[in-house]
Write a structure and sequence with these properties.
With 131 residues, this protein is mainly α. It is built from five helices and two strands. The chain has two domains: 39 residues; 59 residues, Roll (Nuclear Transport Factor 2, Chain: A), CATH 3.10.450.50. The protein is elongated.
């Protein structure tokens, strides 16, 4: 048997190898090998699984979030008007740091409260904020 020939003596060209894979073993497009059937079934199953994995969008909470932030900010702005440094500092995280020009850095709620107490005691102190 010559190199590159089939048992019956037919030579299969190299460019036809894709056609042989895409169709059956004898080149008949209606014949599929067991491996091709398995691959097709697997691809179909994978497509169905991926299509079913779609998660619903989370609920839109932007309005509620904006309202909560506005209420928190309004409360904080009212507290600063009372000049109560401890209550003002309670709006910060326990490990927060506050940097005010002309004052040393203040760390933690206690440090912020202590640092702002003298600052807020000034009769000229006044502040408001709104976004």
């Amino acid at each position: 048997m010559a190199a590159g020939s089939c048992p019956e003596g037919r030579v299969r060209p190299a460019r036809a190898s894709f056609l042989a894979i895409a169709s059956g073993p004898e080149g008949d497009p209606n014949l599929m090998t067991q491996n091709q059937k398995w691959m097709s079934g697997s691809a179909l199953c994978l497509a169905m699984i991926l299509a079913s994995c779609e998660r619903p969008a989370p609920p839109d909470t932007r309005e509620a979030d904006a309202k909560a932030i506005t209420e928190l900010e309004d409360g904080w702005s009212q507290v600063i008007g009372t000049k109560d440094a401890a209550k003002f500092a309670s709006y910060y995280a326990p490990d927060a740091s506050l940097y005010v020009t002309g004052l040393p850095a203040m760390h933690g709620m206690e440090g912020i409260s202590k640092g702002l107490k003298e600052f807020m005691a000034d009769p000229n102190f006044s502040s408001t904020f709104k976004t």
